[in-house]
């Protein structure tokens, strides 16, 4: 019994030794190179400190804030430049180059100051009304085109933002224009009556005394000049009417010509269609006859 137990470990040792020898024989040996092995690359990884990281964050935030502020300021500068260009274009469209502003504005200012001086000791309503009236009349007299352009611009703003007030303003302007025309007609009629009365008085004095007062006072020349002016006005009106009639007649003639040409083209097209239909009918009849003969 003791012999069998002693034999077992020796057998196990022999088996393990043989297996180890077999494994050692099967694993190949690593061949060494005849050349020297290259030096391995050394990679340095930069790791910033906490202070550097905080400084970088602060620097980036400062740069971002600066760029945002610069863009904001640049946007306002661009808007201001756009406003300047718009104002410049508007002023150039209002002010006409044919009218010099240097003496015109001076005259308008003097006239407005004169109106305020004249209304200094008047009623409050007169103080409020008289200077603007002097300003408007003087601007219309010394700077007519510029005043017209400015009134058109203000009218466009009024139409865009205050349409109801613009409508009332337009009605007031029409009424004031009608009143002004009536005043002008009344003054012209009054002047004509006065001139005719003066001529009648001069003629009566001339008949009674025999003196040539008309030639002395130059009334005959004035009457002649007035008549010539009226004749010239009538001629201009007649010429305008004739030009308008000519243009309208020419337009009508052109319209008639175009309509006639269109009708002629339509008739030609209709005739071509009729001829084509007749030819088709003839060819159809010929084919039918040939078919019957066959």
TrEMBL record:
* InterPro entries assigned to the protein according to its UniProt record, in alphabetical order: MIC26/MIC27, Mic26_fungi
Q: Which SUPFAM superfamilies match?
A: Apolipoprotein A-I (SSF58113)
One GO process term, biological-process aspect: cristae formation
> What is the superkingdom listed in this entry's lineage?
Eukaryota
* Cellular component GO terms held in the UniProt record: MICOS complex; mitochondrial crista junction
List the Pfam families hit by this protein, alphabetically: ApoO
What function does the entry list? Component of the MICOS complex, a large protein complex of the mitochondrial inner membrane that plays crucial roles in the maintenance of crista junctions, inner membrane architecture, and formation of contact sites to the outer membrane.
Describe, as the record does, how this protein assembles with itself and its partners: Component of the mitochondrial contact site and cristae organizing system (MICOS) complex.
Please identify the protein, giving its name as recorded: MICOS complex subunit
